[in-house]
């Protein structure tokens, strides 16, 4: 029990030192020596826990990714799916998202360090790739395929959906006093069912008319460019 307590204490010291140093110096400039000095441990103690700095970073990031993947996985959400009403499905999705937000909130300082401007720029790409895979899996389960509506190319549609989710979380983490998890979960759920013109309060949006007008303007510009080249 005493050994386990000591390991737990050392882990906490390393994490606290890591968070402090990332915020102060930026992840790229932090060294193992910086961490051991700030944590008041020797290097051999650090190496009993982690192979090197990348191993430490990967450990924290993988914990987060695995938790999110599990919470939003199809297997987790599909229990009795066929028997659920639309409202029940939405409540289950809200519950899963709220679970993730609460997990982040419980380790808020580490999340801020990793996703913030001084953190790991590659971590954002890992999160986006994970969310993209989850999006495809969910569509496969619900629709039988992961094809999107044919308004814009799929890669752009995926980028919009995934980046929007990530940006909400990044904005939340950047605040000095972040809203409670329940509030952010509600915002995320609402954005899943509202289009940008809904959010902006534009109720008389006519997509077909706008699309037709844009096409007309593009044809006019193309025609003018062609005339200019000939002259």
TrEMBL record:
Ranges of residues in domain HTH tetR-type: 8-68
UniProt keyword DNA-binding present: yes
InterPro entries: Homeodomain-like_sf, HTH-type_Tx_Regulator, HTH_TetR, TetR_C_Firmicutes
Domain of life per record: Bacteria
GO MF term list: DNA binding
Record keywords: DNA-binding
Residue ranges the UniProt entry marks as DNA-binding: 31-50
Protein name per Swiss-Prot or TrEMBL: TetR/AcrR family transcriptional regulator
Species of the source: Candidatus Ligilactobacillus excrementigallinarum
């Amino acid at each position: 029990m005493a050994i386990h307590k000591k390991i737990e204490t050392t882990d906490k010291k390393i994490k606290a030192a890591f968070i402090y140093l990332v915020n102060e110096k930026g992840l790229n400039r932090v060294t193992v020596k910086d961490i051991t000095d700030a944590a008041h441990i020797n290097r051999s103690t650090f190496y009993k826990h982690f192979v090197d700095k990348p191993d430490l970073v990967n450990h924290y990031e993988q914990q987060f990714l695995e938790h999110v993947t599990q919470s939003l996985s199809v297997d987790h959400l599909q229990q009795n799916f066929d028997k659920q009403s639309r409202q029940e499905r939405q409540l289950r999705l809200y519950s899963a998202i709220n679970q993730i937000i609460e997990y982040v909130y419980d380790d808020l300082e580490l999340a801020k360090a990793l996703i913030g401007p001084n953190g790991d720029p590659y971590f954002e790409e890992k999160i986006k790739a994970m969310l993209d895979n989850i999006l495809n899996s969910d569509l496969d389960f619900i629709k039988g395929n992961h094809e999107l509506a044919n308004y814009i190319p799929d890669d752009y549609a995926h980028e919009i959906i995934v980046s929007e989710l990530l940006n909400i979380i990044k904005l939340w983490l950047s605040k000095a006093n972040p809203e409670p998890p329940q509030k952010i979960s509600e915002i995320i759920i609402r954005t899943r069912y509202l289009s940008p013109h809904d959010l902006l309060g534009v109720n008389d949006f006519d997509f077909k008319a706008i699309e037709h007008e844009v096409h007309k303007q593009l044809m006019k510009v193309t025609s003018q460019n062609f005339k200019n080249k000939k002259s």
